[in-house]
């Protein structure tokens, strides 16, 4: 057969995508944030892992747009990511916690000596070895990288999509708000974007510092205004110069109605029950909070504000001012999240103390962080040589996620005994985990009492929870959490108890006093009375333990939208 005279056609261009090359590029960029989030999954949940997964796509944009510079661009980006991620890795190796803006707060708000010690005292073999392995793996991944050539238009579209999908997402509601007339806040959207970016390198340093500066400036403005307030007039301490230690323990999200100490059928508070049976613990049976949220409740409890005059916490001295004016050295030890826009007031209180110890540097409150972490700094405060000490401990208590609030050995309640029968298996699991959290909280509070007892110092320890929690108790047993618009008694009923060593001022007519109906909005008057402090603003009729106490309407709800009488709620 004669050979064909038809000219040979050139090879058609390859249309297949180098998915393996893209995979190696993505894995390289993801490596600087992803592994830590995988390790943190049991502690912090999936939010950080999810955010890192999506944010890592941003770094594909420059290598898609400029494939010939893939290795050079990846090297520069990798060095930046390595520099920030190795800080997070080192912090995790030392503390087993996620790096956050709270760590930045601790570093910047400490003096130079404390910061130097903080940075150097934990240099160890695990830290050096972990950093070396991390660096070696990053280098090995970088060696696998190769250019990925995409059609120019596709590379541009993908790059724009990766960047805009991650950065513009929080602002997506703006066009709809303009069309519908609804409110939209660019500030809130920006804060949301910063929270989403914070788990990933290098944003945990950049956004963490930006948020730290914004929050600390707000706090310092409040502190500056507070420092200009006039002192309380005619302050008198009936205990004179007698050495003493007064301890305030603030719990979290714990309703008294789920404590065996208050008649709950499950034995959720065995240690506190034993103290009460021995006559060592004075338990007040009908105390409520005014608001079912931490900040709003403590704004009133720790100041002269109340439901009828909620702004007084800004214009008058607070409990920290009072105790400092009375000559106490003050300590604030907290396991609450250190830096957040919601916790500004709490951080302000802590910075008013002579010594503040922030134990919780987690990025989010909803992580595993057990309250026994406060035992060591509490012991150090008790050993302080100051003759008059005021110690505040702020616990995480039974804050949701309840299963994160206790170690495994406290998972005692696992069955349906005393559980409302209509609950699903998942609701039963939540119901039981709340009781387990209360059981662990019983261990923590009773341990603090025992530590104080061993010092043989004069004074007292008072414990209350900031607010309660509804956990499927109220029929039809479907409500979980707190809602001022649909209040239940469990959201507001709080434990309130007092332990005093022998010889301290006793409370007269204990039985009658413990049955009084009281709102913790007026707590500063009760504390002043117990501490033996009087001054012009002190009102004995608002003190739970004063002979001149007068019952008042116990207002609950948002003062700006309307109040209601707690005692008018269905029983």
Task: Note down, in words, how this protein is organized.
- Helix 2 (34-44) runs antiparallel to helix 3, helix 5 (70-95) packs antiparallel against helix 8 and helix 6 (101-109) crosses helix 12 (203-227).
- Strand 9 and strand 10 form a beta hairpin.
- The protein folds into two domains: 19-167 and 198-211, no CATH class; 244-550, Alkaline Phosphatase, subunit A (3-Layer(aba) Sandwich).
- It is of the alpha/beta class and 571 residues long.
- The longest helix has 31 residues, at 425-455.
- It is built from 22 helices and 15 strands.
- Strands 3-11-8-2-7-5-6 form a seven-stranded mixed β-sheet, sandwiched between helices. Strands 1-13 form a two-stranded antiparallel ribbon. A two-stranded parallel sheet has the order 4-12.
Provide tags for this entry.
disordered N terminus, alpha/beta, single chain, 571 residues, 7-stranded mixed β-sheet, two-stranded antiparallel ribbon, Alkaline Phosphatase, subunit A
């Amino acid at each position: 057969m004669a050979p064909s005279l038809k000219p040979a056609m050139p090879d058609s261009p390859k249309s297949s995508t180098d998915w393996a090359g893209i995979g190696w590029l993505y894995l390289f960029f993801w490596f600087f944030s992803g592994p830590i989030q995988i390790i943190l999954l049991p502690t912090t949940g999936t939010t950080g892992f999810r955010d890192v997964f999506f944010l890592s796509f941003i770094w594909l944009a420059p290598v898609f747009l400029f494939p010939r510079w893939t290795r050079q661009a990846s090297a520069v980006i990798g060095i930046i990511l390595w520099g920030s991620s190795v800080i997070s890795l080192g912090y995790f190796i030392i503390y087993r916690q996620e790096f956050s803006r709270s760590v930045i707060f601790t570093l910047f708000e400490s003096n130079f000596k404390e910061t130097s010690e903080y940075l150097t005292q934990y240099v160890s073999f695990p830290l050096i070895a972990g950093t070396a392995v991390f660096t070696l793996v990053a280098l090995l991944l970088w060696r696998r990288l190769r250019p990925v050539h995409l059609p120019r238009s596709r590379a541009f579209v993908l790059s724009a999509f990766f960047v805009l999908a991650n950065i513009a997402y929080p602002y997506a509601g703006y066009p709809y708000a303009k069309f519908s007339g609804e409110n939209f806040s660019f500030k809130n959207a920006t804060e949301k974007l910063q929270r989403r970016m914070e788990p990933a390198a290098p944003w945990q340093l950049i956004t963490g510092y930006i948020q730290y500066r914004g929050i600390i400036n707000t706090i310092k403005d409040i502190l500056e205004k507070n420092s200009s307030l006039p002192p309380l007039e005619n302050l008198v301490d009936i205990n004179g110069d007698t050495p003493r230690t007064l301890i305030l323990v603030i719990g979290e999200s714990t309703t008294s109605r789920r404590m065996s100490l208050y008649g709950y059928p499950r034995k959720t508070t065995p240690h506190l029950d034993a103290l009460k049976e021995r006559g060592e613990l004075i338990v007040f049976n009908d105390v409520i909070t005014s608001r079912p949220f931490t900040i709003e409740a403590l704004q009133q409890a720790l100041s002269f504000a109340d439901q009828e005059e909620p702004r007084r916490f800004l214009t008058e001295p607070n409990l920290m001012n009072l105790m400092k004016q009375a000559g106490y050295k003050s300590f604030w030890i907290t396991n609450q999240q250190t830096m957040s826009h919601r916790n500004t007031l709490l951080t302000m209180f802590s910075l008013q103390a002579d010594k503040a110890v922030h134990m919780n540097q987690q990025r989010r409150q909803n992580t595993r962080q057990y309250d026994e972490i406060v035992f060591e700094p509490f012991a150090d405060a008790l050993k302080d040589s100051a003759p008059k000490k005021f110690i505040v401990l702020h616990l995480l208590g039974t804050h949701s996620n309840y299963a994160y609030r206790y170690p495994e050995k406290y998972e005692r309640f696992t069955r349906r005994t005393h559980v409302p029968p209509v609950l699903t298996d998942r609701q039963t699991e939540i119901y039981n985990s709340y009781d387990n959290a209360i059981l662990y909280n019983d261990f923590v509070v009773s341990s603090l009492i025992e530590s104080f007892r061993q010092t043989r110092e004069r004074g007292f320890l008072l414990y209350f929870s900031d607010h309660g929690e509804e956990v499927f108790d109220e029929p039809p047993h479907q409500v979980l959490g707190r809602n001022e618009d649909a209040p239940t008694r469990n959201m507001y009923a709080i434990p309130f108890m007092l332990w005093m060593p022998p010889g301290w001022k006793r409370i007269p007519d204990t039985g009658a006093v413990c049955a009084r109906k009281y709102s913790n909005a007026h707590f500063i008057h009760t504390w002043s009375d117990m501490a033996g402090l009087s001054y012009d603003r002190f009102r004995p009729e608002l003190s739970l333990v004063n002979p001149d106490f007068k019952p008042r309407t116990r207002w609950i709800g948002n003062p700006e939208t309307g109040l209601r009488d707690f005692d008018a709620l269905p029983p």
